[in-house]
Amino acid sequence: MIIEIKNLHKVYNSSGVPVHAVNGIDLSFSKGEFAAIVGPSGSGKTTLLNIIGGLDRPSGGSVTVDGTEVTDLKPSKLTDFRLHNIGFVFQAYNLIPVLTAKENVEFIMQLQKVSRSERSKRAEALLTAVGLNDRMDSRPGKLSGGQQQRVAVARALASKPRFVLADEPTANLDSRSTENLLDMMLKLNREEGITFLFSTHDARVVKKARRVITIEDGKVVEDETKPE
């Protein structure tokens, strides 16, 4: 298993009242899965992804990624682990406003010490794949929401991660862009074995997913793997 989640809890205090965003979740994901986590707003989907990715600490339980217990890593080790293993697609894009689309995609590779020529070549290939070959030199402020999301997806894939965590990655895309994006992700999933884990409300993502996990009130209520 590439991801193992055991008895995971996340409790927030809201005005002195404990709120269980994640409440005793047990899940595991094999290498190469293409899975969607669904559920109503506030069900714990984003919190779960953030804990898996080491962006948030659980109140209890553990997350182990490829043999490394992420929930036990010190901050410096955790940062390094994320850099080399996980690709993130955030709902808010999180692009660097002073950098162009291409520079945003290259940034992760620069942190990984990838050569200038290699990161330039890969950034151009990824931006072309998401339909932004004519906007590589544009900064985020000159791009639409959908275009910024596609840059964010290209950036997530640039580091050649073992798996990608995507929080509502198609929220700002039209139908055609969504189909193109999902097809590209499926291609990478099949050809390079990258594991994809989405949180989503989008029926188009759910349709493409091979596994659908439903969460309500911080608990898994259904876990369905579709027949091949």
Describe this structure in words.
- The protein is α/β, with parallel strands linked by helices and 228 residues long.
- The chain has a single domain (33-47, 79-225), classed as P-loop containing nucleotide triphosphate hydrolases (Rossmann fold).
- 36% of the residues lie in helices and 29% in strands.
- It has helices at residues 45-52, 75-85, 101-111, 116-129, 145-158, 175-192, 203-208; strands at residues 3-14, 17-29, 34-38, 60-65, 68-69, 86-89, 163-167, 195-199, 211-216, 219-225.
- Strands 6-7-8-3-9-10 form a six-stranded mixed beta sheet, sandwiched between helices. Strands 2-1-4-5 form a four-stranded antiparallel beta sheet, covered by helices on one side.
- A hairpin with a 2-residue loop joins strand 4 and strand 5 (68-69).
Strand content: 25-35%
* Integer-rounded radius of gyration: 17 Å
Query: Shape, please?
Result: globular
* N- and C-termini, Cα separation: 20 Å
The pLDDT mean sits at 91
Order of helices and strands: EEEHEEHEHHHEHEHEE
Give the beta-strand count: 10
Q: What class, by secondary structure content?
A: alpha/beta
Order of strands, main sheet, comes to 6-7-8-3-9-10
For the biggest sheet, the summary is:
6 strands, mixed
Number of helices: 7
CATH architecture: 3-Layer(aba) Sandwich
* CATH homology superfamily name: P-loop containing nucleotide triphosphate hydrolases
CATH topology: Rossmann fold
State the helical fraction: 25-40%
